[in-house]
From TrEMBL:
Organism field: Calypte anna (Anna's hummingbird)
Name the record gives this protein: Vesicle-associated membrane protein-associated protein A
Protein's membrane topology: Single-pass type IV membrane protein
Family: Belongs to the VAMP-associated protein (VAP) (TC 9.B.17) family.
Function summary: Endoplasmic reticulum (ER)-anchored protein that mediates the formation of contact sites between the ER and endosomes via interaction with FFAT motif-containing proteins such as STARD3 or WDR44. STARD3-VAPA interaction enables cholesterol transfer from the ER to endosomes. Via interaction with WDR44 participates in neosynthesized protein export. In addition, recruited to the plasma membrane through OSBPL3 binding. The OSBPL3-VAPA complex stimulates RRAS signaling which in turn attenuates integrin beta-1 (ITGB1) activation at the cell surface. With OSBPL3, may regulate ER morphology.
Length: 174
């Protein structure tokens, strides 16, 4: 994630399914309150890919603090018929699950660099799946345009504010 971190920073992951079967995926994180992931689960058709947007919420960056935030992209082959995505994950046997783990890196631009010089159009990391590390699925929505991403960022901000309000109200009630 490129800094500064005074506003939402979005990074995209490209998940690709090189297999000949549909694959279900879900994205998990060790810091769910710090990130908004859209879509956070879905299905990737054989030979297709999907873009997953990961939005880091604003925070006070400390360059001396090592980030321990991680993501796990978990996948499994899709059953012939899917009616309930939650059931797919509950019923999946551990030996049918594949995962890729990613560690977050926060980078502040050098004083000589301009924030505008950061190339947001850089290709996203591609997580390939083979027999060793498993398939990578694609959600129903193939990609998000700028308008959709902005709407999601605004929705994330609104929901974060609502969470803070409800947490405060809960604390007051206790």
């Amino acid at each position: 994630f490129p800094g500064p971190f005074t506003d939402v920073v979005t990074t995209n992951l490209k998940l690709r399914n090189p297999s000949d079967r549909k694959v279900c995926f879900k994205v998990k994180t060790t810091a769910p309150r710090r990130y908004c992931v859209r879509p956070n689960s879905g299905i990737i058709d054989p030979g297709s890919s999907v873009i997953v947007s990961v939005m880091l919420q604003p925070f006070d960056y400390d360059p001396n603090e090592k980030s321990k935030h991680k993501f796990m992209v978990q996948t499994t082959y899709a059953p012939p018929t899917i009616t309930d995505m939650e059931a797919v994950w509950k019923e999946a046997k551990p030996d049918e699950l594949m995962d890729s783990k990613l560690r977050c890196v926060f980078e502040m631009p050098n004083e000589n660099d301009k924030l505008n010089d950061i190339d947001a159009s850089k290709p996203a990391p591609v997580l390939n799946t083979s027999k060793q590390d498993g398939p990578m699925p694609k959600p129903h929505s193939v990609s998000l345009n700028d308008t959709e991403t902005r709407k999601l960022v605004e929705e994330c901000k609104r929901l974060q504010a609502e969470i803070m309000k409800l947490t405060e109200e809960n604390r007051h009630l206790r």
